[in-house]
Design brief:
1 helix; 123 residues; 4% helix; four-stranded antiparallel beta sheet
Length: 123
């Protein structure tokens, strides 16, 4: 049984930092591209940061470039998102996703999704 579990969310002030973690079990982690998505109430889900199977390719949403860093540890089956200089408009539920095909996750698809971790940025 595949499980994807996010952690590390919380309440932070504007300009603060958080590090999100995602663990995936029940799958061969290095067979999957991984990514972070977020969805705020009343908004569509958007891709935040994505990484290919071995980290050779990455994608960042325009609004997070230069502030967020995605990384993965295939040996530990972990995905991370380091977020800096957070803004109130980035308050959202952050989801971790796993998808075999790079084009697929770029298009917002995921074979497996976690339940999310809430990030709240206070002004």
């Amino acid at each position: 049984q595949v499980q994807v579990v996010e952690s590390g969310g919380g309440l932070v002030q504007t300009g603060g930092s958080l590090r999100l973690s995602c663990t995936a079990s029940g799958l061969n982690f290095d067979d999957y591209c991984m990514g972070w998505f977020r969805q705020a109430p009343g908004q569509e889900r958007e891709a935040v940061a994505l990484m290919s199977r071995w980290g050779g390719s990455s994608y960042y949403g325009d609004s997070v470039k230069g502030r967020f860093t995605i990384s993965r540890d295939n040996a530990e089956k972990m995905l991370y998102l380091q977020m800096k200089s957070l803004k109130p408009e980035e308050t959202a539920m952050y989801y971790c996703a796993a998808e075999v095909v790079w084009r697929g996750i770029l298009e917002g698809r995921g074979s497996y999704w976690g339940r999310g971790t809430q990030v709240t940025v206070s002004s």
